[in-house]
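Sequence and structure are no longer studied apart. To make this concrete, we show below a single chain and its fold as tokens.
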Amino acid sequence: MDQDHTAETRQQPSRADAQALAREQLETALFEVKRVIVGQEPMLERLLVALLAGGHVLLEGVPGLAKTRTVNTLADVLGGSFARIQFTPDLVPADLVGTRVYRPDTGALETELGPVFANLLLADEINRAPAKVQSALLEVMQEQQVTIGGTTHQVPDPFLVLATQNPIENEGTYPLPEAQVDRFMFKLVVDYPTDREEAAIVARSLQPSQAIRAVLTPQQLAAHRKTAEEVYVDRQVVDYAVALTVATRRPEEIGLGDVAPFIEFGASPRASLNMVHAARALALLRGREYALPRDVRDLARDVLRHRLVLSYEALAEGIDADTVLDRVLQTVPMPDVELSPAEEAQAA
């Protein structure tokens, strides 16, 4: 028994080997995506972080910034199943989750599952669907399951929703419920490319499209998620994430009394959870076995911006969430974490 146990232990990769393998395969996936997508480095990094941490992502940007193409490319690289839903005002929940259909030949009701039963779901222009559709999607995002005719169906694992929305059109759109917005780990604001990047985009369009290789499988991604869960998080990192979240609720306590009138409601505790879990995944991508406060700081705007409910005064003065968060990040001190020998051993 001892020899069998020893042989089995030797076959299992160490934590360091698992982390090195995860970084290598994720870097390969990122390189493959960059063969198609020019620039947008922060967005691509955040998408990989979301995949590792199991969080949904909301992409916001004007038309023509390759949001949809980025998600399509990422799905091709990761393998697994992929579905795209074009959200429209006439969409109904059955179009999303599925329905029960009567079969005259058998005289029975059969369940037809909808497009949400995929590893990667692209919800294109998500703010164009009415409230009933948003409620159906909320159950899937939160519970990873769908109830049809009293029967519960689990969606595939891993399951991620990548949603896009256009910030410049209001006609025919519906504001997303706050409960649903809070389920997104990140809200990424996609900006215009630089002149150099745009020239590279045009140059690539003159060449034949390159075939995309699937370099990851859902099983490998699930294994890498478990590896990310083993990244060490110091208590000071947790306290820093919580301090940033609490500062959005009570800014006057950190000397930001002038910012308080601009915030109607601050971020929920889910923001602290997402910052820490995302920081752990980011540390793995950056080649570390432990998270640092700067990982939290780098992700804070993407985690917090959609969780702030701004007041009418802020809207009247043209104050957006990022402006408020800039003040918060400048004011809340970032701890200088120095791991003790015992903590370094635990992190290793």
